[in-house]
Prior knowledge:
Oligomer: single chain
Mean pLDDT: 84
Radius of gyration: 14 Å
Amino acid sequence: MSPKEPSPIPRFPTAGGAYAFKIDPMHDYRFGDEVEPEAEGRFFGSRIFSEMTLSEADARALRALLASDKAYDPQGTTFRCFSPGLGLRFGDAESAVRVVACLECYHFVLIGNGRVSWQIPARNTVRQLLELYQRLPPEA
Protein backbone atom coordinates (compact mmCIF):
# COMPACT_ATOMS: atom_id res chain seq x y z
CA MET A 1 0.00 0.00 0.00
CA SER A 2 1.46 3.35 -0.97
CA PRO A 3 1.43 6.25 1.53
CA LYS A 4 -1.33 7.97 -0.48
CA GLU A 5 -3.76 5.04 -0.38
CA PRO A 6 -6.21 4.98 2.51
CA SER A 7 -5.88 2.03 4.85
CA PRO A 8 -8.26 -0.83 4.04
CA ILE A 9 -8.67 -1.35 7.80
CA PRO A 10 -11.73 0.45 9.17
CA ARG A 11 -11.42 2.83 12.12
CA PHE A 12 -12.52 0.98 15.24
CA PRO A 13 -14.90 2.94 17.47
CA THR A 14 -13.72 3.41 21.03
CA ALA A 15 -17.22 4.03 22.37
CA GLY A 16 -19.91 1.41 22.73
CA GLY A 17 -19.66 -2.22 23.66
CA ALA A 18 -17.53 -4.99 22.23
CA TYR A 19 -18.97 -8.45 21.66
CA ALA A 20 -17.81 -11.87 20.48
CA PHE A 21 -20.07 -14.43 18.80
CA LYS A 22 -19.64 -18.15 18.19
CA ILE A 23 -21.38 -18.56 14.82
CA ASP A 24 -22.43 -21.36 12.50
CA PRO A 25 -19.65 -21.83 9.93
CA MET A 26 -21.97 -23.60 7.49
CA HIS A 27 -23.46 -20.55 5.85
CA ASP A 28 -23.23 -18.71 2.54
CA TYR A 29 -21.78 -15.38 3.63
CA ARG A 30 -22.67 -12.19 1.83
CA PHE A 31 -21.49 -8.79 2.94
CA GLY A 32 -23.38 -5.85 1.54
CA ASP A 33 -26.32 -3.54 1.91
CA GLU A 34 -28.82 -6.34 1.32
CA VAL A 35 -27.72 -8.25 4.45
CA GLU A 36 -28.69 -7.08 7.90
CA PRO A 37 -25.54 -7.53 10.01
CA GLU A 38 -27.35 -8.65 13.15
CA ALA A 39 -30.89 -9.84 12.67
CA GLU A 40 -32.51 -11.65 15.58
CA GLY A 41 -30.15 -14.46 16.65
CA ARG A 42 -27.96 -14.07 13.55
CA PHE A 43 -24.64 -12.52 12.56
CA PHE A 44 -24.54 -11.77 8.81
CA GLY A 45 -27.18 -14.42 8.30
CA SER A 46 -25.38 -17.11 10.27
CA ARG A 47 -26.98 -18.54 13.40
CA ILE A 48 -25.35 -17.36 16.63
CA PHE A 49 -24.54 -20.33 18.87
CA SER A 50 -23.34 -18.23 21.82
CA GLU A 51 -22.10 -14.73 22.59
CA MET A 52 -20.34 -12.74 25.25
CA THR A 53 -19.60 -9.14 26.07
CA LEU A 54 -15.86 -8.50 26.02
CA SER A 55 -14.22 -6.96 29.06
CA GLU A 56 -12.90 -3.43 28.59
CA ALA A 57 -9.33 -4.79 28.69
CA ASP A 58 -10.06 -7.46 26.05
CA ALA A 59 -11.89 -4.95 23.85
CA ARG A 60 -9.05 -2.43 24.08
CA ALA A 61 -6.43 -5.10 23.27
CA LEU A 62 -8.38 -6.48 20.30
CA ARG A 63 -9.11 -3.00 18.92
CA ALA A 64 -5.42 -2.13 19.10
CA LEU A 65 -4.41 -5.43 17.51
CA LEU A 66 -6.93 -5.34 14.65
CA ALA A 67 -6.33 -1.64 13.91
CA SER A 68 -2.59 -2.25 13.47
CA ASP A 69 -1.01 -3.11 10.14
CA LYS A 70 1.10 -5.64 12.09
CA ALA A 71 -2.03 -7.75 12.61
CA TYR A 72 -2.03 -8.73 8.94
CA ASP A 73 0.26 -10.73 6.68
CA PRO A 74 0.41 -9.28 3.17
CA GLN A 75 2.46 -12.34 2.09
CA GLY A 76 -0.13 -14.78 3.47
CA THR A 77 -1.78 -17.57 1.56
CA THR A 78 -4.76 -17.16 -0.72
CA PHE A 79 -8.29 -17.82 0.51
CA ARG A 80 -9.22 -21.44 0.86
CA CYS A 81 -12.52 -22.18 2.54
CA PHE A 82 -13.95 -19.25 4.51
CA SER A 83 -16.19 -21.12 6.91
CA PRO A 84 -16.13 -18.63 9.78
CA GLY A 85 -16.97 -19.58 13.31
CA LEU A 86 -16.13 -16.29 15.06
CA GLY A 87 -17.83 -12.91 14.82
CA LEU A 88 -16.85 -9.71 16.61
CA ARG A 89 -18.61 -6.37 16.93
CA PHE A 90 -16.99 -3.20 18.21
CA GLY A 91 -19.32 -0.27 18.89
CA ASP A 92 -23.04 0.04 18.48
CA ALA A 93 -25.46 0.60 15.61
CA GLU A 94 -24.29 2.40 12.48
CA SER A 95 -20.75 3.17 13.72
CA ALA A 96 -19.97 -0.48 14.54
CA VAL A 97 -17.07 -2.37 13.01
CA ARG A 98 -17.67 -6.09 12.59
CA VAL A 99 -15.17 -8.89 12.04
CA VAL A 100 -16.05 -12.32 10.65
CA ALA A 101 -13.18 -14.82 11.04
CA CYS A 102 -12.69 -18.30 9.60
CA LEU A 103 -11.10 -20.65 12.10
CA GLU A 104 -10.10 -23.12 9.39
CA CYS A 105 -8.14 -21.03 6.88
CA TYR A 106 -7.79 -18.03 9.25
CA HIS A 107 -8.90 -15.42 6.73
CA PHE A 108 -11.32 -12.79 7.86
CA VAL A 109 -13.30 -9.80 6.75
CA LEU A 110 -13.66 -6.43 8.46
CA ILE A 111 -16.87 -4.51 7.82
CA GLY A 112 -17.22 -0.90 8.90
CA ASN A 113 -16.94 2.77 7.92
CA GLY A 114 -18.52 1.93 4.57
CA ARG A 115 -15.77 -0.61 3.76
CA VAL A 116 -15.51 -4.35 3.39
CA SER A 117 -11.88 -5.46 3.77
CA TRP A 118 -10.71 -9.08 3.37
CA GLN A 119 -7.54 -9.76 5.37
CA ILE A 120 -5.01 -12.49 6.05
CA PRO A 121 -3.96 -12.35 9.69
CA ALA A 122 -0.44 -12.66 11.05
CA ARG A 123 0.26 -15.64 13.33
CA ASN A 124 -0.01 -13.61 16.53
CA THR A 125 -3.44 -12.37 15.43
CA VAL A 126 -4.59 -15.94 14.75
CA ARG A 127 -3.36 -17.03 18.18
CA GLN A 128 -5.24 -14.24 19.95
CA LEU A 129 -8.46 -14.87 18.04
CA LEU A 130 -8.31 -18.60 18.79
CA GLU A 131 -7.76 -17.87 22.49
CA LEU A 132 -10.83 -15.63 22.47
CA TYR A 133 -12.90 -18.25 20.63
CA GLN A 134 -11.99 -20.89 23.23
CA ARG A 135 -13.32 -18.63 25.98
CA LEU A 136 -16.74 -18.27 24.34
CA PRO A 137 -19.51 -20.21 26.06
CA PRO A 138 -20.62 -23.49 24.47
CA GLU A 139 -23.68 -23.49 22.25
CA ALA A 140 -26.79 -22.24 24.01
